[in-house]
Amino acid sequence: MRHRTFFWFVFPTVSAMILFIAFPIVSVLLQSVYAPHPAVLVEVETCTPLVGCTIETVMDQDATKALRNAEPLGRFVGFDIYFDRGHLAISEVKEIFINSNSLYEIFKKVSNLPFYRAMGFTLTFTFVVTPFVIILGFLIAITVNAINSKLKGLVIFFSLLPFVVTQLIGALVLFWMIDSRGILGNAVQWILSDPNLSLKASTGVMWVSLIIYGIWHAAPFAFVIFYAGLQTLPQDQIEAAKIDGASRYQQTRYIIIPHLFPLITFVALIQLMDNFRVFEPIVGFNASAHAQSLSWFIFNDLGGETRQLSSAAASSVLTIIGVSILLFPVLLRTWQDFREKT
Amino acid sequence: MTTKLEKRPTSLKVLIYVFIVIWLIIAAFPFIWTVWGSFKVELDFFSISDWTYALTGERTKAEYGTPFTGRGYEGAWIENYFWRNALNTFIICFFVVCTSLTIGTLGGYALSRSSYQYTFWLLVIALIFRAMPPITLVAGYMLPFFEWNIWGILPTTIIVLVAINQPFTLWMLHSFFQNIPKELDESAKVDGCTQFEAFRFVIIPAMWPGVITTGLFSFLLAYNDFAVTSMLLSENNRTMVPAIEAFLGTTYTEGNIMFAVAAVVSTTIPLFLLVMFFQKQIVSGLTAGAVKG
Fold it and tell me: Across the interface, do B227 and A186 touch by the CB < 8 Å criterion?
């Protein structure tokens, strides 16, 4: 295809991506180093006879407006927003390092700072959910592969539901059951005979519930991928292994898992990126008192009456950096594939 | 496959079926429970005194005379204008799917037919863009959209969702077009067609299976979106998912939570039907990405 024709074919899609993905990233980078202008204050002396003169500080509406119009981005503050208490909290961390005696104390104090607490939850969520999703997805795939083919369609239909349904809705549906007044919450209270056990009161229970939600939501994805992989199993190798007397476990361990391995890495890479951006379940579970994530910070800054754009922008840049680190192996793999092809 | 099963010892067979049944319960029970509960009053669905009330609907009987009531649906759809949110969702999904498929097929086709180095880089950039969480981009939209006074309306959100959708659409259609033999449009060009005519008359008739699968995923993205729609739409233009979140936030008085439950069930039904009718396409779409790359 000639360059000219190619250009016109890709023009609409490329311009959409430049305008609404590339520019916003630039815009986020810019906003994160600018803070909104403070109001311009002027001192006004008002004198009344008999009472005397008072000096009042009032906001100069016109000057403030003029300043905001002249520089709509705000004033340049460099990395100040990144370093403030709501984000990397550099000075607080420094202080903790100077004043603490043990590593445990440092760890405990640092993980109380909002950004590090959110990072703690995000990373725990990402690295617990991902392996469980792979294991559960694999188990479902090999069992579904073994059942009567008439039942398969039905099983696949129900299995897809947790993955296809809107994340917020899936989270709410589970939350209403796990809630202390819901059926599962009630059951757990009854089993442990602890009537005060409640999702809203305990950080630990909340984290476990969110992680269970994450596994429930993503396991169908892993299942579908692995199930497709199982359809291309090398039957001759399995036959040969059977003749050699390999047990079921050995067949799984030495033939099926190596065959699925590229798919396992694929699911792992996708899941690491997806789980890192967790935030809808936090909204659905109303969990913000116990668990926050970087994405939730952005959501929280942007919503509400006071839209804190600069703070949201800084959180966004930090999220993008995190995603890029997780994305790196994927890009490396794509590059290798491309090199092999050419 | 059935012959393989026959060779399995009975204990393993039992284990397999027990596992499948447990998984089915885990996957489907929450939805069935919520559909059942959406026809009850709050004190039954969230029963503190006795959980069997949720099954029998004691309080619902006491209040309305029957164990089932459409009160939640009435409250959500009529009193709280959930039909408007449903209409907005429908409009947004329709235009997002149409636009992103139109520009996506053109782009995906060109990417599959050009063998220059820059096609690879375009695809890699698309991959990077796909990894960006939409919520991080939203922070970048706010200021310019306020400045230009285009915040809060449906067209803006449609364009944003189309753009966010493009990287995925491009990758998917690119791999579908690669499976359509190049010789088809090459021979059309030899016969005197321009590239666009070859695309129009030779490729378009052959591309529908891939386009339908891609369209399904575009639809799911637009329908399920929460981050973009909740931030970029004003209260009157809200779609269903942010509307549900708003139900939870503002109307926490007794009984009103059932409006949210009814709205959740109403929003899930179209997805239910979608999975039922397009199960094959969804499965093939999910696996296309894995096999290719």
Answer: no
Asked if B76 and B259 touch (Cβ cutoff 8 Å), the reply is: yes
Q: Does residue B150 share a domain with residue B42?
A: no
Reported pTM:
0.89
Contacting A residues, span 203-222, partner chain B, CB-CB under 8 Å: 216, 220-221
Domain count of the fold of chain A = 1
Domain that holds residue B88: 81-292
The answer to whether A19 touches A43, Cβ cutoff 8 Å, is no
A12 neighbourhood in chain B, CB within 8 Å:
102-103, 106-107
DSSP state, B152?
B
Which run of H or E residues covers position B50?
Answer: none
pLDDT single digits (tens) A31-85? 899 887 777 778 787 787 777 777 777 777 788 778 777 777 778 888 888 888 8
Residue spans of alpha helices (H) in chain A: 3-17, 23-31, 61-70, 80-83, 90-99, 103-110, 114-146, 149-164, 167-178, 183-191, 203-230, 235-243, 248-251, 257-276, 280-284, 294-302, 309-341
The domain that contains A120 carries what CATH number?
1.10.3720.10
Element (H, E) at B85: helix B82-113
CA pair distance B51, B129, nearest whole angstrom:
47
Cα–Cα nearest to B207, from B238, B223, B184, B232: B184
**A31–B140 C-beta distance less than 8 A:** yes
pLDDT in tens, A314-332: 999 999 999 999 888 888 8
Q: How many domains does chain B have?
A: 2
